[in-house]
Inverse folding.
């Protein structure tokens, strides 16, 4: 089962990049890498945001 997460679904009006992973943990690592490289997040800020918004993030994860 492959999971996906799209930036636009999370509220970014411009970025349509989609990340994939075979597990939630792998997907979140790919999301973190993209957030750091493309959106200027630090690892600390990303981890704080994920912790605060995990329920919402899980609702945005799709199975493909």
């Amino acid at each position: 089962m492959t999971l996906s997460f799209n930036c636009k679904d999370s509220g970014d009006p411009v970025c349509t990049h989609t990340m994939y992973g075979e597990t939630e943990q792998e997907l979140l690592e790919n999301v973190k890498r993209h957030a750091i490289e493309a959106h200027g997040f630090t690892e600390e800020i990303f981890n704080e945001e994920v912790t605060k918004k995990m329920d919402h993030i899980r609702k945005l994860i799709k199975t493909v």
About this structure: The chain has two helices and three strands. Residues 9-63 form one domain.
